[in-house]
Amino acid sequence: MANLAQRVSDMLHSPKAQEMIQKVKAQANKPENKAKIQQITQKWKHRGYSSGGGRGPSRGGY
Known about the structure:
With 62 residues, the chain is an all-alpha fold. The chain has helices spanning 4-12, 15-28, 31-45.
């Protein structure tokens, strides 16, 4: 039995996966979607940082 990494790799190189990747790339290149991606990226870059105290990013209570 193939290990998980090999199975994932095989799936990602399948024709169906390649078709889905092309569709995602086409959607990501649309201006309205680029703006949404930029907003989400900025939100995640700044997520969890406190406004003071120098504690850095939140680690979910760790």
